[in-house]
Amino acid sequence: MNYRDLILNLPNQFKYQPEIINADKLRPFKHIIIAGMGGSRLAPDILKMLRPDLDIHIHSNFGLPVVRDDANTLVIANSYSGNTAETISVAQEALKQGLPLAIVASGGKLIEFAAANHLPHIVIPEQNLPPRTAIGYSLVALAALLGLDRDIFAGWQTPVSDELVQQSKDIAEILQGGIPLIYCADQYKELGYVWKTILNETAKVPAFCNRYPEFFHNEIASYDSTLAKQLRVLVIGANQERLLNFLKEKNIPHTNIVFDSNIASAIILVHLTALALAEIAGMDPLSTPAIDEFKKLA
Questions:
Q1: Are 108 and 57 in contact (CB under 8 A)?
Q2: Domains in the chain, please, with CATH?
Q3: pTM score
């Protein structure tokens, strides 16, 4: 399946009905640590944005962060491949410390680890997808482990519209040839990070994100530099006319996207935008050779 087909199929991932193996070992927890790297971090980020009322900590490193309430903290090791070294180390350390632990993966060492230790786990379908394109499966699985109502994904199964495809091409035309900066309100910072990483991996472009109003007090000062000519700005969210007018005065190419409660459309939009940028540049949207090369240096 090519990249475009993977993205057009993404809404169907939210129809997924996960099976929790060893579900009897799960219970409600006050604190949640979700470990994930790269594309496997995106679903935890989106879940945290959707449910700010939950105490969710995203951990992207080896080992564990400081855990202050062992009995009431659930650690979830989330790795699409099941073979991510950092996430495996999280699972091993959590088991060593006797912390409640669950696993989400499509297979690999983590599923073997979960089965051997009789841990609650979900085996998500379709092995060998790029992890960033399996965000729907991962989101649904994580929500199931936490006992969340599927209503949070209401409407997310809607097929990709022609309008969304055209919007992605329009955004790509603005972003091409420069360095994308993604700006969003603090409550959408996780979505801004999703845009940044998918542009990095799929379009192979440097991209960065920041939050308003914080960046009004620091990063915006750099717009007086001649280097600002290389910037292409994407503003996520409504009611930012002052910022949009400022960018216009500075002659910085920019665009603004506003979305409703269907966050899936914003996720699909960045995938399609990154695909359009990759096609413009003649890049393979699926492969990530620099990441592969760096891993071989370990």
A1: no
A2: 3-153 (3.40.50.10490), 162-281 (3.40.50.10490)
A3: 0.94
